[in-house]
Every structure is written in structure tokens, then in C-alpha cells.
């Protein structure tokens, strides 16, 4: 999402590493990094288990990528992001050595990289403990210093490191008992403030997910379908609750619906069976097909799409995002994870306009300032990549940036591992080559056909070299 797996140099494709073993008794899964989240969850559910970390791209996102970015998704509200679910990582380091790093086990000091880390681990942890804490509920920006300060576990630094410290060749994950039943609540509100209050009520009620659909999202969705909410609604919450059985799930949904009525919503609807719940959730996925059918000259560019702020700041932050889009004469779609105050923004950019690059650079600059002003993070779940790494000095404390440089020096002193990600390079800028730029040199025909097929068929889980062979 943020350009973490592109750039000059050797690109490693691990999509063929698809080993998968479920240990139902221990509630563990041992997977290759190329296994998709959907494949893991399908196997786990056959054993009465599930993997709760579920990005909306779960049908095709890989477990390796999820571990690399500390991925999350809507159900992180209850179950947390990727880091907490990783027990062990098989790693290859910059010097070519390899080792397994597991929780509650000291790193193998006989491996040079891990020996260097062991000598400095205590000092690093003490420094991490003194970093300022962000008042956000989700964060995949920078390294996992706050979790490392609490645990002392190297796994917590490796998860979310985006390939800048090691390549993961196998991952051991904890699994959870599968929920037996779910129910859905859709609540529409006349103001963002009421919606945020509703998200707090849902969070306190133990909701598994609480999604925000902003007015900008509803306006686009209404292009092709009648909305199931009042047209004057400024925001919609989609909330999921899970429980041991249908009765408990339905009771929880009904109770939450009643509690939300105290906020004066424009409507509250319950989905107490699979059909009605699917109908309510279909609104959440209504916009993507519309955006995919935009004219080729108008692109949904995701360059400010992952900010998270303190929950109380969410209404003002969303309104500020709308105002920034208006000032730059850009439409945009805003949605996200209300329970975590985590916002996705898709500005719509006309690449035929001669100043489109200057416009997105200015808009990105303004949103970075906004995020810093509200004490937020630039990346709630998608990582820094080459897009956000050069901007970290504007939102993170200098001590944290110094810690990151020291950690990089321990693991990768020659800067071989994903340079320009997590630790910026000299004179690095956030917006380099952008794939939508009509002035870029054209790709070879076979590569263009393969990538067009990826986009058209959502074939993101397919091995790229196989697709290239087929295109030839």
C-alpha cells in the first residue's frame, strides 16, 4: 500500500512458499510467508479455530506481508493487530545467516546479528521505555518500540519491520477458538460527533468491529444503489458482535442497538441472521467496484490513506480531511475503523491536469501537518514503505528516529535490506515514480498485460512470474 515492496534492487517474491500446518491442540499454525490469510483461516476453521487478524484484503493478502506491516483490519478493535499473534519467525538476515526467533526464548547469540542485538538489547529497551507514547489505538509506523519496551521480545521489533531487518521464511501464529455466532448493527447519525460517541459505546460493549462510513463514502455509494439510511446522515457505523451462540449474539446486538438510541441516530438496523447481516455489510463494499470503473484518467490514489488519531479527535480530523480535499479541488472517499479512530482516504485524481503531481504533494504535506497536530500516526495498519518513511521526522520524536537508526545498524549495517523503508535515505522524498503517471516509460507489453489482469481479476495472490509467463 505504501510502496514497501517496490524499489531499485532485488525484489524477493515469496508467494510460492505456501507451507501450512495446523496444530489444533496447541492452537498454533506454522505457515510459509506466501500463504494467504484466507487459506490459513479456512484450514483453521476446519479445526474449530480461526485467525482473528483479518484485513479487508484477506482473500489475497499474504501472512508474510501481514507480519511485515503489523497488519490489522476491522476486528483488531477486539482482537488486536498482527504483532500480538506472532509466536515465532524464521528469519534470513542481511549477512545471509538465518535463525529462528521465538517468544520466551533468548535469541541465538551464535548468529552474528543476534549476538550484536543481545549485547545492546537492555539499553535499547530502556531507551524505548522513555519514548513519548501516542494516544492512538493502532500504529504500524516505525518499529514496535512500545511493545518491545513492555515485553523485551525481539519478535515485537521484527513484526512490522517491513523487510528492513530480515526476510521471514516461516511464521508461527497463535489461533483462537472460532466464534460460533455473529450479529450486526448498522447505525446512521446526523453528525460525526454522535457517530464517534456511538463507536465508544460499541467498543465498551465488546464489539469485534466498528466501521465508519463517512458522508463522502455514502455519496459515492448512492451513485448506483439506494442507501439503506437517511440521506441526511453524515456518518454510518457498521458494528459486528460475536458470541458463543446465536441467542447471545442477537441479545448483544439488540442491547447495543438500544444503547445507541440514546444518541438520537437517524436509524438503527439489526442483522440477526446471515442474510440480513450480509445485506447490511454490503454497503461497506459498495464503493470499490465504482472506483474501479472510473475513467482511466481519474485514479483513486491512496497516498493519505492510513492515518489514525486519538479517538476524541476523530470528528475534527475527518472534517479537516474533507476541508483539505476541498481546498485542493479533489473529491475523495473517507471510511475506516471508527472504534480505533483509524481513517482510510482515497482522493480521486485527474492525471490529465498538468498540476496533478503538485496537487497531491501539497495535499500530502497538509495531511501530515494535520496528523502531527492531532498527535496521530501516519500508518495505522499498512506500514511506512517509501511513501511515509521520509515523513517520519515530522510526526515521530527524534529519540525514536535515533533508535530506529541504531537498530538498523545492528541488523543491516550495509543498508541492504529494503533501503529507504523505516529509516530514510539521504534526500529521500515521499512521492517518486507513481504508477499512474502517463509520462513514465511504458512497461513491456507482457508485463502490462499481466498487471492489468491482476487489477481486473483481483489476482493479487497469484505469483507474478507465472502471470508474466502466461501473458507471454
Give a written overview of the molecule.
- The chain is α+β, with helices and mostly antiparallel strands and 472 residues long.
- Among the domains are: 20-177, Uridine Diphospho-n-acetylenolpyruvylglucosamine Reductase, domain 3 (2-Layer Sandwich); 181-288, Alpha-Beta Plaits, CATH 3.30.70.
- It is 36% helix and 17% strand.
- The protein contains 17 helices and 15 strands.
- The chain has helices at residues 37-46, 63-69, 76-79, 112-129, 145-151, 155-158, 192-204, 215-221, 246-260, 274-281, 287-292, 314-327, 356-373, 385-388, 398-411, 445-457, 464-471, and strands spanning 20-23, 28-31, 49-50, 86-92, 98-102, 167-174, 176-177, 181-189, 209-214, 235-243, 267-271, 298-300, 307-308, 332-337, 342-350.
- The strands form three sheets. Strands 8, 9, 10, 11, 12, 13, 14 and 15 form an eight-stranded antiparallel sheet that branches.
- Strand 1 and strand 2 form a beta hairpin.
- Helix 4 (112-129) crosses helix 5 (145-151) and helix 16 packs across helix 17.
- The protein is globular and about 65 Å long.
- The two termini are 27 Å apart.
Amino acid at each position: 500500500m505504501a510502496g514497501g515492496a517496490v524499489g531499485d534492487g532485488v525484489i524477493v517474491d515469496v508467494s510460492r512458499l505456501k507451507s501450512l500446518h495446523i496444530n489444533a491442540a496447541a492452537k498454533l499454525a506454522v505457515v510459509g510467508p506466501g500463504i494467504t490469510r484466507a487459506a490459513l483461516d479456512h484450514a483453521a476453521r476446519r479445526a474449530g479455530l480461526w485467525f482473528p487478524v483479518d484485513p479487508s484484503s484477506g482473500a489475497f493478502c499474504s501472512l508474510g506481508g501481514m507480519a511485515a506491516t503489523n497488519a490489522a483490519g476491522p476486528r483488531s478493535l477486539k482482537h488486536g493487530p498482527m504483532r500480538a499473534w506472532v509466536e515465532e519467525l524464521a528469519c534470513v538476515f542481511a549477512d545471509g545467516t538465518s535463525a529462528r526467533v521465538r517468544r520466551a526464548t533468548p535469541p541465538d547469540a551464535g548468529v552474528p546479528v543476534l549476538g550484536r542485538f543481545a549485547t545492546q538489547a537492555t539499553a535499547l529497551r530502556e531507551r524505548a521505555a522513555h519514548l513519548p507514547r501516542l494516544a492512538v489505538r493502532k500504529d504500524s509506523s516505525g518499529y514496535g518500540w512500545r511493545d518491545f519496551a513492555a515485553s523485551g521480545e525481539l519478535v515485537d521489533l521484527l513484526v512490522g519491520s517491513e523487510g528492513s531487518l530480515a526476510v521471514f521464511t516461516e511464521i508461527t501464529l497463535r489461533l483462537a477458538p472460532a466464534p460460533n455466532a455473529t450479529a450486526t448493527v448498522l447505525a446512521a447519525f446526523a453528525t460525526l460527533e454522535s457517530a464517534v460517541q456511538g463507536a465508544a459505546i460499541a467498543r465498551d460493549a465488546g464489539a469485534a468491529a466498528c466501521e465508519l462510513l463517512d458522508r463522502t463514502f455514502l455519496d459515492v455509494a448512492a451513485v448506483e444503489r439506494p442507501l439503506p439510511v437517511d440521506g441526511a446522515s453524515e456518518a454510518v457505523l457498521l458494528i459486528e458482535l460475536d458470541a458463543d451462540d446465536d441467542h447471545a449474539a442477537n441479545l448483544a446486538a439488540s442491547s447495543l442497538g438500544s444503547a445507541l438510541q440514546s444518541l438520537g441516530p437517524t436509524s438503527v438496523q439489526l442483522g440477526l441472521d446471515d442474510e440480513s447481516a450480509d445485506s447490511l455489510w454490503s454497503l461497506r463494499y459498495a464503493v470499490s467496484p465504482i472506483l474501479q470503473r472510473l475513467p482511466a484518467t481519474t485514479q483513486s490514489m491512496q497516498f493519505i490513506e492510513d492515518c489514525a488519531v486519538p479517538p476524541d479527535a476523530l470528528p475534527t480530523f475527518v472534517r479537516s480531511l474533507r476541508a483539505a480535499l476541498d481546498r485542493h479541488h479533489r473529491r475523495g472517499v473517507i471510511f475506516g475503523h471508527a472504534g480505533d479512530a483509524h481513517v482510510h482516504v482515497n482522493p480521486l485524481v485527474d492525471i490529465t491536469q498538468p498540476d496533478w503531481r503538485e496537487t497531491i504533494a501539497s495535499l500530502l504535506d497538509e495531511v501530515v501537518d494535520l496528523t502531527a497536530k492531532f498527535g496521530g500516526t501516519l500508518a495505522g495498519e499498512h506500514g511506512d514503505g517509501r511513501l511515509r518513511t521520509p515523513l517520519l521526522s515530522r510526526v515521530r520524536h527524534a529519540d525514536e528516529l535515533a533508535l530506529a537508526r541504531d537498530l538498523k545498524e545492528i541488523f543491516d549495517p550495509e543498508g541492504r535490506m529494503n533501503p529507504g523503508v523505516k529509516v530514510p535515505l539521504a534526500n529521500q522524498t515521499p512521492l517518486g515514480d507513481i504508477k499512474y503517471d502517463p509520462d513514465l516509460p511504458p512497461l513491456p507489453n507482457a508485463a502490462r498485460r499481466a498487471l492489468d489482469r491482476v487489477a481486473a481479476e483481483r489476482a493479487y495472490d497469484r505469483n507474478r512470474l507465472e502471470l508474466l509467463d502466461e501473458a507471454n
